[in-house]
Each structure stands twice: as C-alpha cells, then as structure tokens.
Amino acid sequence: MQADLIIVGAGMVGSTLALALEGCGLKIVVVDAGPLEVLPFDAQAAFEPRVSALSAASQRILQRVGAWPGIAARRASPYTDMRVWDGSGTGQIHFSAEAVHAEVLGHIVENRVVQDALLEALQARGSVELIAGARLERLQRGDEGWLLSLADGQQLRTPLLVAADGAHSAVRRLAGCETREWDYLHQAIVTSVRCAEPHQRTAWQRFTDDGPLAFLPLERDGDRHWCSIVWSVTEDEAHRLMALDDETFRAALGRTFEQRLGTVLEVDPRLCIPLRQRHAKRYVQPGLALIGDAAHTIHPLAGQGVNLGLLDAAVLAEVLEAALARGESPADLRVLSRFERRRMPHNLAMMAAMEGFERLFQADPLPLRWLRNAGLKAVESLPEAKALFVRQALGLSGDLPELARA
C-alpha cells in the first residue's frame, strides 16, 4: 500500500494530527497495534486510572478537530482552582481561573475518553484509513521514502512518516533516532479515590519529602467527591504502598494529603508507573517527524505531557499545510525542521521547569527548603506573577498554532 503520510500510533496525539490534516489533499493512513474499537460509554462505570489535565489550548485544538463534543458527551471534569503547598514547610500558593477572567483552568479527562472521542471523529469522517492490530517489525529508508513491514506481512510505503507511538516508540528505535534519557528512581501510583468532602473543582498538590502528591478533581453525575491521584514516591516506597490492603493504603494516603478533603473513603485498583524522562536529540529526519511521547516524556508534576503532544500535532499540521500551499514537499527536511524549531525550545523549557521543581521540592538542605517556601510565599503575594503562570498554563500566550488560539 502507498500513502502520502503514514502516522504510526492512533493515540491521543496521532489521532489529533490525522484529524487536523483531514481534507488537506494527502492520502493519510494511521496504523496502530491496538484494536481501534470505540466501546459504548457507561456513565456509571468506574473512572479509568490514567487521566490528563487538558489545558484551554488543548481544549481548543480538540474542539477544532471535532473531538470535544464526544469528550463532553462522555465525561470531563472542569477545575477552576489549583492549590499547591510544601508539606515540609509553610509555603503555599493558590491559582484561580478568575484571576485571568477565564471560566476554568482546564479539564481532568480520562485518557480512554479522549481516545474514544478522537477515534469516533476519525471513523465518522472516513477519509483517513485506519489499520488496526498493525505491529511494526521493520523500517527501511529508500530513495522514495519509507518502507514499513508489519508483523502480519503487510508492507506500506510513504515519503512521510510520523511517529506518534508513545514513549517506547518502535519508529524512533527502528529509525535510529538518538535520545537523552534518565530515570527519576521514582514511580507514580495512580488510581481514583472518593473523599468525605467535595473537591471544590480544585486541583490539589502537596510536595512531600518523597515526591509530589496530586488530587485531581473528577465529577460523575454531579458527585464531586471523587479525585484522580498521582502519587510520586521512591521505588522502595512504591513497592511498600502497592502491597498494602485498601484500608491501610487509604489511611496512608489521607495522612500524606493532610486530610485536606477529609477521610479517603474508597479507592479503586492502583497502577504503578516508573518515571523516566526522555527527549529525542532531533525531532526530524528527512521524511520523518517525532511527536508527543515519541519525542519527549516529562515528569507528571503538572500534567503537561499530553498538552505538549497536542501542541506538537497542531504545529506539525500547520507546517505541513503551509508547505503544501506553497508547493513544497511536506517530506522535505527543510519543511520538517520548521516544526522542530517551533516545538523543541518550548518542550525543553517545560521539561527544564518541571525538572527544576522536582529537584527543588525534594531537596533536603535547610537553605533550599527555606528558598522554596520563600519562593511560594513571594509568588502568592504577586497577583501579576500568578496571572502570568496561569496564562501560560492555559495556553493563552507564546507561539501557539492556529488551532490552539482563542
């Protein structure tokens, strides 16, 4: 099979790119190892453990590619405030949407909900070919572009290949793309919990000596007592916590969270995810681009990973459409380098900021403890500084693609 563009990975980022380019005149094929089935949504079902904190910029992108109605029809939990504090000191800070005249800071959405809404939109339009159960085994580059060999024997050819196949990208590995990566020696425990008190549509984050603990607000049929938790701890502590029975785990979680929402009454099954930072040295080669987690993975400290990936997709779509309008080949390295120049500095800056926060809040020396508490207090006393942070998080500033602009 021959295509003008093959996207490997039909996850949130790959599907968004396909929808953003739909109708641009290219024959687009999306291949994925999964079944690519949209299952009926049960509004009473338990929350999926893996969620994303979608920014306003991400919401605009998903609206403009036609996926947001499907998300809203399923389940999305808006939040208007964020409260962050240092568990080892007195520093704290409060961010609010009201400070920048916005209705919400973002939405907490289960990854499965976003994925299904995107697949639903792709299937409804029908102009992008989807190949399910397609595991990439070999990748070869020739004069005419890329030859993809799948596990079932099928072969695909394309001048332009986009890797959107996640942190353990087969495309990145087979194409020989180099990365810089390191292990945080931490793991994140994720699950959903029901608390005695409502979450007040607030995202809560406490920095502990082991790592950050986030309670992210979830909503089901008007019930605001549920939260998604992301608890970053050392590997040994993760093993200990995962071995606890539910009652003992709930008690430990409540103590660590300082009972800000009262007693933790229920806990869903837990997942434990190793934390590793990874960044490709280049996002592009001739006829190849890496986007989303295939290009960069980030500490889940502020829930920015998927937002960076959606911006990657929107910028790449914008660059490719502009190249087509000018009569340029979208597979040309000069074209793809425009995408890299726009996205790499932003992604590196966000990764550096998250790395700095992570190191600062795990630092034991007394001067650094004093510094971080003084910093939180200083920012809390400066409305302008807080508003600047909120506008950046919302995606209201910076080099935004057209799909993300207000």
Automatic annotation (TrEMBL):
The keyword Flavoprotein applies. GO terms for cellular component: ubiquinone biosynthesis complex. Its cofactor is FAD. One of its GO terms (molecular function) is 2-polyprenylphenol 6-hydroxylase activity. Residues 3-350 form the FAD-binding domain. Keywords: FAD, Flavoprotein, Monooxygenase, Oxidoreductase. Pathway: Cofactor biosynthesis; ubiquinone biosynthesis. Pfam families: FAD_binding_3 (PF01494). One of its GO terms (biological process) is ubiquinone biosynthetic process. It comes from the Bacteria. Coiled coil: none annotated. Belongs to the UbiH/COQ6 family. Component of the Ubi complex metabolon, which regroups five ubiquinone biosynthesis proteins (UbiE, UbiF, UbiG, UbiH and UbiI) and two accessory factors (UbiK and the lipid-binding protein UbiJ). PANTHER family: UBIQUINONE BIOSYNTHESIS MONOOXYGENASE COQ6, MITOCHONDRIAL (PTHR43876:SF7). NCBIfam families: PRK05714.1, Ubi-OHases. This is 2-octaprenyl-3-methyl-6-methoxy-1,4-benzoquinol hydroxylase. It comes from Stutzerimonas stutzeri (Pseudomonas stutzeri).
